[in-house]
Amino acid sequence: NLVLTDRERLVVNGVEDVKSFNDECVILYTNMGILTVKGSELHINRLNVESGESIVEGIINSCEFQDGNVSRESMFSRLFR
User: Fold this and answer.
1) What CA–CA distance (Å, rounded) separates 45 from 53?
2) CA–CA distance, 19 with 66 (Å, rounded to integer)
3) pLDDT of residue 67
4) Which of 19, 25, 49 is nearest to 37 (CA)?
5) Does residue 6 contact residue 60 with C-beta atoms inside 8 Å?
6) How far apart are CA 47 and CA 71, in angstroms?
7) How far apart are CA 25 and CA 63, in angstroms?
8) Cα of 39 vs its chain's centroid, Å
9) What is the DSSP string of 14-61?
10) Please, which residues bridge with residue 60 across strands?
């Protein structure tokens, strides 16, 4: 599920991992594929991969899904190379 409120708060269910994030782009692995959220002043307010919920806040301009058949590499595994 995606719930967008006033283009400033996005609640996403089904989140499995975070690929990357900064103040203009958040990329999430979900059970339905990769979700890319673009905007400005973005931040992840909550991330709970056990329950699969994430909250992204800021000025949200777009949300885009890609197929889930893309190779996954965890943000943490990239940090600890």
Assistant:
1) 11
2) 13
3) 78
4) 25
5) no
6) 21
7) 10
8) 12
9) SEEEEEEE-SSEEEEEETTEEEEEEEEEEEEEEEETTTTEEEEEEEEE
10) 39
Phi, psi torsion values for 71, nearest 5 degrees: -60, 130
Whether 25 contacts 37, CB under 8 Å: yes
The pair of structure tokens assigned to 54 is: 């994430």
Please state whether the predicted TM-score (pTM) of the whole model is above 0.85.
Answer: no
Give the long-range contacts of residues 2-5, CB within 8 A, separation 24 or more.
2/35, 2/63, 4/60, 4/63
Phi-psi map region of 74: left, alpha, beta (phi>0 left; psi -120 to 50 alpha): beta
Name the amino acid, one letter, at 60: I
For 21-36, how does the pLDDT look when each residue is reduced to its tens digit (9 = 90+)?
999 999 999 998 999 9
